[in-house]
Design a protein that fits this description.
Elements lengths: L8 H32 L10 H18 L9 H5 L2 E5 L8 H9 L4 H10 L5 H6 L1 E5 L11 H22 L1
Antiparallel strand pairs: 1-2
Helix pairs in contact: 1-2, 2-7, 4-7
Length: about 170
């Protein structure tokens, strides 16, 4: 396992805060139509079958799927680019592939547990441990692999399917 420079809790916390704000802005255009529909029209249907609710729900899930795929390009989310951090494979030290980034980000759902892990070890939260990744300071000397749009699309579709499955399981 390569030796990586340490990252402190404050840097990881700031990365989380920035990403959360940026990704909320990215998710909003997908979610707002569904939210408006729920507030205005859903209560006035009086038992009618609603043909728009499903479509608007599936569109809103696109924004959430984008959130889970935020580090899929070169292991850097918007905040990681600003703070000069990147996600790497913990075993090889190479930039993490999109699937590893997706796995680590799915654990954002249980953010209170992730916060405890970050307090204990700022470099690796639970999602990093399961995904086999680690966040390190940006290293311009790491080879930047050609962007695999197939891997990114596959990660996005997996993320989207995960959101839909969780929604149906919990309802």
């Amino acid at each position: 396992m390569p030796d990586f420079p340490k990252i402190d809790f404050k840097t990881r916390y700031n990365s989380f805060r920035i990403d959360l704000r940026v990704m909320v802005l990215v998710m909003l255009p997908f979610a707002i139509p569904y939210m408006i529909y729920q507030m205005v029209y859903a209560k006035n249907l009086h038992g009618r079958i609603d043909e728009y609710k499903g479509a608007l729900f599936y569109i809103s899930c696109i924004g959430i799927a984008l959130f889970f795929c935020k580090d899929c390009i070169y292991g850097q989310s918007p905040a990681k680019r600003v703070l000069k951090l990147q996600v790497v494979n913990n075993e090889t030290g190479q930039i993490a592939n999109p699937l590893r980034c997706l796995v680590r980000n799915l654990f954002d759902i249980i953010w209170p547990i992730e916060a405890v892990f970050l307090l204990i070890n700022p470099a690796r939260r639970l999602g990093d441990i399961v995904g086999g990744t680690k966040v390190i300071p940006f290293n311009p000397e790491l080879p930047r692999p050609e962007i695999s749009y197939v891997q990114i699309a596959f990660s996005f579709l997996l993320s989207y399917a995960f959101i839909i499955a969780i929604t149906f399981i919990t309802n």
